[in-house]
Design brief:
This protein is mainly alpha-helical. The chain contains four helices and no strands. Helix 1 crosses helix 3. The model has no long low-confidence stretch (mean pLDDT 76).
């Protein structure tokens, strides 16, 4: 990609957080719109149980940290895989010369050897 690993890490984390926030906003909007459903009529949207229950609040914070940690682990795994793939691609093209250059080199070597043979034959004739 031509970007430094640190920049890739920052961008991937930012993208994942943006997507997560968009999904969360979508779900909140969906919840608000479903307020007229008989299944959600009994739900009090203004009363958040985490505001009154410290254990629940603590558990939710722990889950959030665990999720962020897992996201970071997944990012690192895929960054490493991408880095390894890029290295393999570079190795394929960097090992020796590519085919078109190899053909030119072999053609040149053949013409050089033909020229040497003609010189040798010419030297023998004189």
């Amino acid at each position: 990609m031509g970007m430094k690993e640190g920049r890739i890490d920052v961008l991937s984390r930012q993208i994942l957080l943006d997507v997560g926030n968009q999904i969360q906003n979508y779900r909140k909007t969906e919840l608000r719109l479903d307020g007229g459903c008989h299944l959600t009529d009994q739900v009090d949207l203004l009363r958040d149980p985490a505001k009154t229950d410290p254990q629940l609040r603590k558990r939710l914070r722990q889950n959030k940290k665990a999720a962020e940690s897992k996201i970071h682990q997944i990012e690192k795994t895929f960054e490493q895989k991408q880095f390894e793939l890029e290295l393999r691609d570079d190795d394929i093209f960097d090992n020796g010369v590519d085919e078109s250059q190899a053909e030119v080199t072999s053609d040149k070597n053949e013409s050089d050897s033909n020229t040497d043979e003609k010189r040798t034959k010419g030297d023998k004739q004189t």
